[in-house]
Design a protein that fits this description.
CATH class of the largest domain in chain B: Mainly Alpha
GO biological process, one term (chain B): transmembrane transport
CATH class of the largest domain in chain A: Alpha Beta
Order of helices and strands of chain B: HHHHEEHHHHHHHHH
CATH superfamily of the largest domain in chain B: MetI-like
Structural class of chain A: alpha+beta
Distance between the termini of chain B: 10 Å
Helix content of chain A: 25-40%
CATH superfamily of the largest domain in chain A: Dipeptide-binding Protein, Domain 3
Strand content of chain B: under 5%
Protein name (chain B): ABC transporter permease
Subcellular location (chain B): Cell membrane
CATH topology of the largest domain in chain A: Dipeptide-binding Protein, domain 3
Shape of chain A: globular
Largest sheet of chain B: 2 strands, antiparallel
Number of domains of chain B: 2
Number of strands of chain A: 22
Shape of chain B: globular
Largest sheet of chain A: 7 strands, mixed
Oligomer: heterodimer
InterPro entries (chain B): BPD_transp_1_N (IPR045621), MetI-like (IPR000515), MetI-like_sf (IPR035906)
Organism (chain B): Streptomyces chrestomyceticus JCM 4735
CATH architecture of the largest domain in chain B: Orthogonal Bundle
Structural class of chain B: mainly alpha
Distance between the termini of chain A: 71 Å
């Protein structure tokens, strides 16, 4: 009898668990997915999951969201082209008014028409201080958005800002849905409705996002009918699932991408990027604040060796935020690795070598701390390589790692191995990195660089619409960085993707530092055509 | 039995209050900045004014006690607040995920208990035999193997080399619907790995318990009375040998939760564990507090369950605690 009571208690416990499980299992947010065929579906593995899919909170702000469209978008060469706007904007002569004519006959995926009200709603909501959008400073130049008529929207700027049109790639949200709920936490943040080529069918957080083609897309229905982004944070697991045939493509670090080289049915794509790694040189530090030390470090580093050794060749040396193959790069500002000259500069400036090989000047040893983000292997390797190169010139760099919380309080006096990069316009990187008004403002201008000539060139270049004048401005900035380096830029890093050989003519765009959902060969999945 | 359950439930109230207050206090003292976590990479270029505004909007500039009280009174009326990191109501976040975690853990737990008990009894029957040595040393090896590593090993073997089971996810990656058949296929590997990672403790405890019981007078008496070996083993030795295992059932619950955390991440299982890590590192107060309450309740229920089972199995113990 007693054994029976054990058994019944165990059975009861088990039944309870099962009931609880069954009850809880019915909750995942529903949605209809299509059965996947071989030719019309694609599954890719990505490392990063967005917190929200609401453009009002910053999703897709750099364009190229699959669910939404912006007024403008980028083509393969990162040139602006019309999307929800019928043509490129008309800019007034003073550069402060941008007028957009909207495309006719566009509907959101729920069938409701897209109108000028949606555009005004989107921009006004992002600028609203109650909206938790951390990127709203990017619209700093915007004073107000005005609906002129049903098909015309006018943006008024506080000051002339040449790259403003680049900001209007941000996705347009439907007022009739998002306007009726809590902007920060409502269901629109996880179940968005847009005008884009794909409709989100389900977002299983931590696992995947599934999309189906929008049959009424104004740009034509995509050939890839079902598209899935599997979220796999671990690099090894992503590579394993690609190998097992579960994924059609994935982003991989260089060492894992290399293991697919001999695969017959897969090809590797290396996306060129603006993604740089750099060492900040805080001006408040007695060592890194000395111009001679900055110049010496800038030529003491062996950038080529870093590209070959750390990046396995997938990248290129960086001499500033602008990559050497960009049209905005100032030719002639490349610096060769020149240890002798570096030592000469330090000798001339009075930094004399002591017995231990470390230089010193007026009792101040040439030594400083360099932080990198703990757990980031790429940054760690860059930091160690930089320290070893500096040591050869007699400068001691003490490398230390920690989370941003530990690094932030020390950024004023300690160097940091930082990363960044935004390809859309040179203003986006350079103004934030170099303008003295942003010295020490959050992660902007971490070196607290202050160079009046650079300040003036930056402001002039953002206020004029004349391409040649802008180029001249950014050339000045880059030349100035040779004589008075604000940072030691090390490398620009290629992003590597391995994809099954099932589609024709896959391409990649030039990518920013932050590679979210939109980057990779699937930047234009709506245009993919099956290989015969 | 009912009295003990009632008393424990009553006792749970102050425990839960203290735990949630503790969560808020520890999180407030942590160096993590919730606003920076919320802003993510966008925060790296955000202006200080923008970040301060978000800090105010999220309410994290309020004093600790005020925030806790606000959360608590909200929770009592059924409003668990909004998760800052996942940009959605906490109840929705938990609702979408907890079922899959419970399914995974329950399966793993049942497998671990059943298989562990079986192997333990087999090993105890002939101490020092080949089988005993094999099982015991395997158990000790597994005890040292991290679930994460076991998971990768399982993916390599079953998904890659043999190609018999899916490598991860809740359903086939290309499919949008969660059918029972697909979930059943996908749950096999993560549940087995989690079960195997819990197995050694049950095996070793049962082996020890049953082994000791076999040496005790009642068992020897039973043998002397000529009862069959089966009856002796299962009716006598197993019952008294099982007592420590019953305590183990409850105390393994926290371990099961940590194990699930690693297993879920290896298999991209959309459970609650990943959310817990995110909530902790980004100081997502509402989500963190709710998840901690859940974990605490799970541990309290685990303890209650093991005490109840213990009482049922051994009447000398009773239900007075």
């Amino acid at each position: 009898m007693r054994s029976r009571s054990i058994r019944s208690a165990a059975a009861a416990a088990l039944a309870g668990t099962v009931a609880l499980t069954a009850a809880a299992c019915s909750t995942p947010s529903g949605g209809k997915g299509g059965a996947s065929g071989a030719q019309d579906s694609a599954v890719v593995g990505i490392a990063y999951e967005p917190e929200s899919l609401s453009p009002l909170l910053g999703y897709g702000k750099d364009g190229n969201s699959k669910i939404f469209d912006g007024l403008l978008t980028h083509d393969a060469d990162m040139k602006l082209k019309p999307a929800l706007a019928a043509k490129l904007p008309e800019v007034s002569d003073d550069g402060r008014t941008y007028t957009y004519t909207l495309r006719d006959g566009v509907t959101f995926s729920d069938g409701k028409p897209f109108t000028a009200d949606d555009v005004v709603f989107t921009y006004e909501t992002i600028l609203d201080e109650k909206t938790n959008n951390a990127s709203k400073a990017e619209l700093d130049a915007l004073e107000k958005v005005e609906k002129k008529d049903a098909r015309t929207v006018v943006f008024h700027l506080k000051y002339p800002y040449a790259p403003f049109a680049e900001r209007t790639v941000l996705p347009i949200a439907p007022q009739h849905i998002a306007g009726k709920q809590d902007i920060n936490h409502g269901s629109f943040t996880t179940a968005p409705i847009g005008t884009g080529p794909y409709i989100l069918t389900k977002w299983s957080k931590g696992e995947k996002l599934t999309f189906k083609a929008n049959p009424h897309y104004w740009g034509g229905a995509p050939k890839v009918k079902n598209f899935t982004m599997a979220i796999i944070k671990d690099d090894d697991v992503r590579a394993t699932r690609l190998r097992s045939g579960d994924l059609d493509g994935a982003i991989l670090p260089p060492n894992l991408a290399a293991t697919f080289k001999s695969d017959q049915d897969k090809k590797s794509l290396a996306a060129k990027t603006f993604d740089y790694r750099t060492v900040t040189l805080p001006t408040a530090n007695k060592v890194t604040g000395d111009k001679a030390v900055r110049r010496a470090l800038d030529i003491a580093v062996d950038r080529k060796a870093m590209v070959d050794g750390i990046l396995d060749g997938a990248g290129k040396p960086a001499y500033g935020p602008v990559p050497t193959d960009s049209p905005w790069f100032a030719k002639g500002t490349e610096r060769a690795h020149d240890l002798k000259k570096a030592e000469q500069i330090l000798d001339d400036a009075g930094w004399k070598k002591g017995d231990n090989g470390i230089r010193a000047k007026d009792g101040q040893p040439a030594s400083f701390k360099l932080w990198y983000l703990a757990g980031d292997k790429l940054r760690q390797e860059h930091a160690l390589a930089f320290a070893s190169d500096a040591k050869k010139a007699g400068v001691e760099v003490k490398v230390e790692s920690g989370p941003w919380e530990a690094i932030m309080p020390n950024m004023k006096t300690d160097a940091v191995l930082a990363g960044g990069g935004s390809p859309a316009d040179p203003d986006f990187d350079q103004y934030l990195l170099l303008h003295s008004s942003l010295a020490g403002d959050g992660f902007n201008n971490m070196s607290r660089y202050d160079n009046p000539k650079v300040d003036k060139a930056l402001v002039d270049a953002r206020r004029t619409d004349d391409k040649a004048a802008r180029k001249a401005g950014y050339d000045t900035v880059q030349r100035e960085l040779v004589d008075d380096p604000a940072y030691v830029f090390l490398t620009h890093i290629d992003h590597l993707y391995v994809v099954k050989d099932r589609w024709k003519d896959l391409t990649t765009q030039v990518e920013p530092h932050d590679h979210g959902l939109a980057s990779g060969p699937w930047w234009n999945v709506e245009d993919w055509q099956p290989a015969a | 039995m009912a009295r003990m359950t009632g008393r424990r439930a009553l006792f749970a109230v102050p425990v839960l209050l203290a735990v949630t207050l503790g969560v808020f206090a520890v999180a407030a003292a942590a160096p993590f900045d919730p606003v920076r976590a919320y802003a993510g990479t966008a925060g790296l270029t955000a202006s200080q004014a923008n970040l301060d505004q978000i800090r105010h909007n999220l309410g994290v500039d309020q004093p600790l006690l005020g925030r806790w009280w606000h959360w608590l009174t909200g929770a009592l009326t059924g409003d668990l607040g909004d998760s800052a990191t996942l940009r959605a109501p906490v109840s929705q976040v938990i609702g979408e995920r907890i079922g899959w975690s419970v399914l995974l853990c329950a399966l793993a737990f049942v497998i671990a208990i059943v298989v562990g008990t079986l192997l333990g009894v087999l090993a105890a029957r002939r101490p020092g035999s080949m089988l005993d040595r094999a099982v015991t040393s395997a158990a000790y090896t597994l005890e040292a193997a991290p679930p994460f590593w076991l998971g990768l090993l399982a993916v390599w073997l079953f998904a890659l080399k043999l190609g018999v089971l899916p490598a991860g996810g809740l359903t086939d990656t290309g499919s949008g619907i969660a059918t029972a058949g697909q979930v059943a296929r996908h749950v096999v590997l993560p549940a087995l790995v989690l079960a195997v990672s819990q197995l050694p403790w049950f095996v070793l405890y049962v082996r020890q318990g049953v082994g000791d019981a076999l040496e005790e007078d009642p068992v020897r008496g039973a043998r002397a009375r000529g009862l069959s070996e089966r009856t002796v083993l299962f009716q006598h030795a197993l019952r008294s040998g099982l007592l420590p295992v019953l305590t183990l059932v409850g105390s393994r619950v926290p371990e099961l939760i940590t194990g699930a955390l690693l297993v879920e991440s290896v298999f991209s299982w959309p459970g609650i564990a990943a959310a817990t890590v995110d909530a902790a590192t980004s100081v997502d107060f509402p989500l963190l507090a709710a998840l901690t309450v859940l974990a605490t309740i799970a541990v309290l229920i685990g303890n209650l369950l093991s005490d109840l089972l213990y009482g049922l199995a051994d009447p000398r113990v009773g239900f007075d605690g």
